[in-house]
Amino acid sequence: MGNAAEDACLEGVTSIQRACASLVAYSSIEGTNEVRRWAEGF
Predict the structure, then answer these.
(1) Which burial class, exposed, middle or buried, applies to 27 when counting CB atoms under 10 A from its CB (0-12, 13-18, 19+)?
(2) What digits encode the pLDDT tens for the residues 9-35?
(3) Residue 22 CB-density burial (10 A; 0-12 exposed, 13-18 middle, 19+ buried)
(4) Which domain holds residue 12?
């Protein structure tokens, strides 16, 4: 279909997935305590 609202929604989902993926990668590298501290300050 590809209307503007749909495209924006899909883009939003993609960027959320990317953010989650990088958070997961960060947590496995730096440890969950650092991520928790970051999330609380966010």
Answers:
(1) middle
(2) 888 889 988 888 888 887 676 667 777
(3) exposed
(4) 4-40
